[in-house]
Write a structure and sequence with these properties.
Subcellular location: Membrane
Number of strands: 17
Family: Belongs to the V-ATPase 116 kDa subunit family.
GO molecular function: ATPase binding; proton-transporting ATPase activity, rotational mechanism
Structural class: alpha+beta
Largest sheet: 6 strands, antiparallel
Protein name: A-type ATP synthase subunit I
Organism: Natronoglomus mannanivorans
Shape: extended
Number of helices: 20
Length: 754
């Protein structure tokens, strides 16, 4: 379906005494998308959290912190019990688990800190151990300067030799480490002597470690301590893993329980309340309204008043354009100043219908009185969006949401993407072998326990299926023709042709890509026209109808016989691609003239509707966007050419007098062909040629396979987002998130009801 699921605005009004029961029932139903009270009603304030909300929030933070410490994921738990089955003494159990985990985590932190310090000491001492000089020989001198570090010995010695302040020096090396001893010239202080001489040199200085041991012994001692600390960390991690296995399910179930409690306890923050009453508003799929009313009535009886305020469609600017009839009865008595005064006002004030975005039809008297009778919209009145698509198309909703959630007033483009994206992908790649691999990749992605990965996997399955179908028609299996494999007897196999040798067909693909672009862009403009109809037929004609006339008028003329001699031969005429393959030379001349008239009329309408800016956009919208679809031909020919090149390297090839190249396969008769290239499989010696051929074949086709995803996948995605969406799509809608623990459950139920 192109329209999002129909939504109803619902108001629930009652006394505060039944509010906890109402919240619990609504939460279990998982149907109502709550609207936030904006504080604009006189005498009403946002509600306060239910008692215990702060404690539940603190406990929830504790549980999530423990899960983070344990790196606990729901997928890792053997089984997660229902949150309602948690024992009554769960607080004591949580405290025991928290204490033990925190103790172990603190121990692990202390050990890790000591390990870090030990590793730093090892890093400082290792250069001296590598040097092989005792530490006491590197310090305690009054007449010479000593320095140890890493750098070029030649550069160091050159710098020391060039320094006038250095009278004599000596270097000792061990591996990359250099020890320098330098004596100062007469009258020069030895402190910092070497540092001054090495200014500008790339030299890393090492501080002298504080130990009485030899460097080698000290490193050995530190290394032993490092291993002890690493062993301690492993023991702590093992104990934490044991706790994770024993208490993981409990923590996950407790998180679910506390999440529900916090959601319920904080729900009044979205309500409008007085000392004795509350009003809650929200959106619900219209088909579930009766279920919603029945459940609340069973829970609290007549203690609440439930109203369907409106059931409306919205234009793209958020203004209500239609409201279904709702009961024309007085609303409930609500305490604004006193319950009695509010009841009197609600019984005496008449209802008002929404006609201009003001007070909503069916608004209760209590709400109207609270609003001061001003007719102002007092709660968020933009409906959330529940996309309502056929099951095969639902994974493609992800591609729409990557841009933005559709507005409630917009047509949902998911179905159109489902119909065009896999088809275009398959057209561009068109190979049975690649198609099967794409489907296999999609199947693997679908196995992941993630909605996004399942959607990607399903899209991959569809794209792979169309790639396989087009590959069958193109007669391609990893770039090798089925006829070369002896499969030419299959029906319709090789009905089409692509690749480097498909010269005539390539011209046809150019023309058909333009036709596909015209169809695709017209779909977008028609959807945009329907969206604009909410502003009136005139607005729709100027906004979208003008571009429909302009673009189609131009290309109807291009594909017509009017001035046929002035047009490229491959587009129209006796030598056109349509004439050669379909027997169609072009549209009649009179149709072309009508197209020119439509072009001029559309151009004028663009100028009237969008002004000078629209006229400057005319070349892109009427012509350039259609030409963008030529990228499909580029990908089709490029991928075919790449597969051809890989196979030519592997198998070699022969050419006949027409220039057609046949791969040197055992199944192919190359008699009468001239050998062009000796493939790797035919190289001598065979024990080198065949393994090399296998490597080139596998790696080459993997490269083509992956480039197919980036080329065909991204290029078609660009055509969807830039050329197609630009014709109609605005987005910016709010996603339907019902008040309840499993926000996805209701959406799934509503979508599977078709």
């Amino acid at each position: 379906m192109l329209r999002p699921e129909r939504m109803s605005k619902v108001s629930v009004t009652g006394s505060k005494g039944v509010m906890p029961t109402v919240i619990e029932t609504v939460h279990e139903l998982n149907l109502l998308h709550l609207s936030d009270y904006d504080g604009s009603w006189q005498g009403f304030d946002n509600g306060d959290p239910i008692e215990g909300a702060e404690d539940a929030s603190g406990e929830l933070v504790t549980v999530r912190a423990l899960e983070s410490t344990l790196n606990l994921d729901a997928d890792e738990a053997d089984s997660v019990p229902d949150s309602s089955a948690i024992e009554s003494d769960w607080r004591e159990r949580l405290e025991r688990v928290r204490t033990r985990i925190n103790e172990l985590d603190d121990q692990r932190g202390e050990v890790r800190e000591e390990l870090r310090q030990v590793e730093e000491r090892i890093d400082r001492v290792e250069p001296f151990a590598e040097l092989g000089i005792d530490l006491d020989l590197l310090t305690g001198y009054d007449s010479v300067d000593v320095l140890v570090g890493e750098g070029s010995v030649a550069d160091v010695e050159a710098a020391l030799a060039a320094a006038d302040e250095v009278r004599a020096y000596e270097t000792f090396t061990g591996g990359d480490v250099v020890a320098i001893v330098a004596a100062p010239a007469d009258g020069v202080d030895d402190e910092g002597l070497i540092d001054d001489a090495l200014v500008g040199q790339e030299f890393t200085r090492h501080a002298l470690p504080d130990t009485d041991q030899s460097p080698t012994a000290y490193v050995d001692e530190l290394t032993r301590r490092k291993h002890e600390l690493e062993s301690d960390i492993e023991e702590i991690d093992t104990e934490l893993e044991e706790i994770k296995r024993e208490e993981g399910s409990f923590l996950l179930a407790l998180e679910e329980k506390l999440t529900i409690e916090v959601q319920r306890a904080e729900a009044p923050l979205q309500f409008a309340t007085t000392e004795r009453a509350f009003v809650a508003e929200g959106w619900i799929p219209s088909e579930y309204y009766d279920e919603f009313v029945t459940a609340l009535s069973d829970a609290v009886g007549d203690s609440v008043e439930i109203e369907e305020i409106e059931r409306a469609e919205y234009d793209r600017h958020g203004a209500p354009t239609h409201a279904a009839p709702v009961p024309d009865e007085g609303g409930p008595a609500v305490d604004t100043e006193t319950d009695e005064d509010a009841e009197s006002e609600s019984e005496s004030e008449p209802q008002k219908a929404a006609t201009d975005g003001g007070q909503k039809q069916g608004q209760s008297h209590a709400q109207a009185g609270a609003a001061g009778g001003s007719g102002a919209v007092t709660m968020d009145d933009e409906p959330p969006v529940v996309l309502d698509n056929l099951r095969p198309a639902r994974p493609f909703e992800m591609m729409v949401k990557m841009v933005s959630q559709p507005k409630y007033s917009e047509l949902d483009p998911t179905l159109l993407i489902f119909l065009t994206y896999p088809f275009a992908f398959g057209f561009m790649i068109g190979d049975i072998g690649y198609g099967i691999l794409y489907m296999a990749m999609g199947y693997v992605a679908y196995q992941f326990d993630s909605d996004a990965m399942k959607a990607i996997g399903t899209i991959g399955l569809w794209a792979g299926a169309f790639t396989t179908v087009f590959g069958y028609l193109y007669d391609d299996i990893f770039g090798v023709h089925m006829a070369d494999l002896g499969l030419e007897w299959l029906p319709l196999a090789g009905s089409l042709t692509k690749g480097l040798q498909a010269t005539e067909w390539a011209m046809l693909w150019i023309v058909l890509s333009l036709v596909f672009g015209l169809i695709h862009l017209n779909l977008g403009l028609i959807v945009g026209f329907v969206n604009e109809l909410s502003h009136g037929l005139k607005a729709a004609m100027y906004e979208k109808g003008s571009w429909i006339l302009t673009m189609n008028g131009l290309f109807v003329w291009i594909f017509s016989l009017h001035l046929v001699n002035e047009k490229p031969d491959f587009i129209v005429g006796e030598e056109s691609m349509f004439a050669e393959f379909l027997g169609f030379t072009g549209l009649p001349e009179v149709v072309g003239i009508v197209g020119l008239v439509a072009l001029v009329v559309g151009f004028v309408m663009v100028g009237i509707g969008e002004g000078i800016a629209g006229l400057f956009e005319w070349p892109a919208w009427a012509f350039g966007h259609v030409l963008s679809y030529l990228r499909m031909v580029a990908v089709l020919l490029a991928k075919g050419g790449m597969a051809f090149a890989v196979n030519l390297l592997v198998f070699g090839g022969y050419s006949d007098e027409t220039g057609y190249t046949a791969f040197n396969l055992p199944t192919y008769d190359v008699a009468g062909y001239e050998q062009d290239f000796v493939g790797l499989v035919h190289m001598d010696p065979v024990w080198i040629g065949i393994p090399l051929a296998i490597v080139v074949f596998v790696l080459g086709h993997i490269l083509v396979l992956l480039l197919g995803i980036t080329a065909a996948g991204i290029q078609m995605l660009r055509l969807e987002y830039v050329e197609f969406f630009q014709k109609f799509y605005e987005g910016g809608g709010e996603e339907y998130e019902p008040f309840g623990h499993d926000s996805a459950g209701t959406q799934t139920r509503s979508q599977t009801a078709d």
